[in-house]
Each structure stands twice: as C-alpha cells, then as structure tokens.
Amino acid sequence: MNMNIEQYFSLCSTHDWFYQYSDDHRVWQEGSRHAERIRYLASDNEAYEKIRQEFNNWLRGERDRPTLEEFVSHE
C-alpha cells in the first residue's frame, strides 16, 4: 500500500497504543494486528520509523504526543 507521510501519521495517531492493557482479547488482537502493520510499513522507510519511534517515546512518557507538523516540512 502506498501512503504519504500524512496518511502514515494518521495511522499512528488513531492507533490504540494502549491495546496491550485491554482485558478484551478481541481488542488486544486488533491492536496487535494494527501495531504489526505500523511496524511493517516503517520497516523500510526512515521517516515512518521516526514517527513510530516518537509515538513509542510518547507511550513511555518521554515526550508530549507527536504532532504532524514535526514531520512535515513546510518549505
């Protein structure tokens, strides 16, 4: 699937980053599937990997929630 950086950011932004804490196995399965897709798409794209990593940093409490403006140049 071809997507631009805005679409990838939206994919990360709408992802349930806390799915692993769910007691509902279906929620966990869907979150796991979605997380795998995010990892796969970032595996050969440096910009996507940076976005994924910054969301992980946010998840660990190391930063504020990422914004699209951090990753899109407005030249």
Write up this protein.
With 75 residues, this protein is an all-alpha fold. The protein has a domain at 5-14 and 24-62. Helix content is 56%, strand content 0%. It has helices spanning 5-14, 25-42, 46-59. Helix 1 (5-14) packs parallel to helix 3. 9% of the residues are buried. The model has no long low-confidence stretch (mean pLDDT 94).
- Gyration radius (Cα, Å) is 13 Å
Number of helices: 3
Shape: globular
Distance between the termini: 27 Å
- Percentage beta strand: under 5%
Low-pLDDT sequence parts: none
Task: Give a count of the beta strands, DSSP E runs of length 2 or more.
Answer: 0
Helix percent reads 55-70%
Average the pLDDT over all residues and give the rounded result. Answer: 94
Give a short account of the largest sheet.
none
Give the SSE string: HHH
Secondary-structure class: mainly alpha
Please sum up the structure shown.
The protein is mostly helical. The protein contains 3 helices and no strands.
Annotation keywords:
about 80 residues; mainly alpha; 3 helices; about 55% helix; globular
